[in-house]
Design goal:
Layout lengths: L1 E4 L3 E4 L2 H20 L2 H18 L1 E2 L10 E3 L6 H7 L9
Parallel strand pairs: 1-4
Antiparallel strand pairs: 1-2, 2-3
Helix pairs in contact: 1-2
Length: 92
């Protein structure tokens, strides 16, 4: 799976890594549902950091469609709420 962090780049994620990312996505969903801005900021940061550390960055000159696009770390709680589905940002 190819994940893009807006304004940053793309990362290749394996199926095995999705389990951890889905856990972090659940934390993000819970914080957004509760309207807890500080928990939301921490959860979004943790999710993006995990994508960066677990994923393999794709070269900037490689053009590949993204399977999933994540907001950047400066995205507000209100903006992310508009992006969230019942399954969070990461389906599955």
């Amino acid at each position: 799976m190819i994940m893009r962090i807006l304004g940053e780049g793309q990362y290749e994620i394996t199926d095995e890594q999705l389990t951890r990312l889905n856990e972090l996505d659940s934390d993000l969903q819970s914080a957004a549902d509760a309207g807890d801005e500080s928990a939301f900021t921490a959860a979004l940061s943790a999710l993006l950091d995990a994508v960066r550390s677990l994923g393999t960055p794709l070269p900037d000159d490689r053009i590949t469609p993204s399977d999933l696009v994540l907001p950047d770390g400066d995205t507000s709680l209100r903006q992310v709420r508009e992006l969230l589905s019942d399954e969070g940002l990461i389906p599955g």
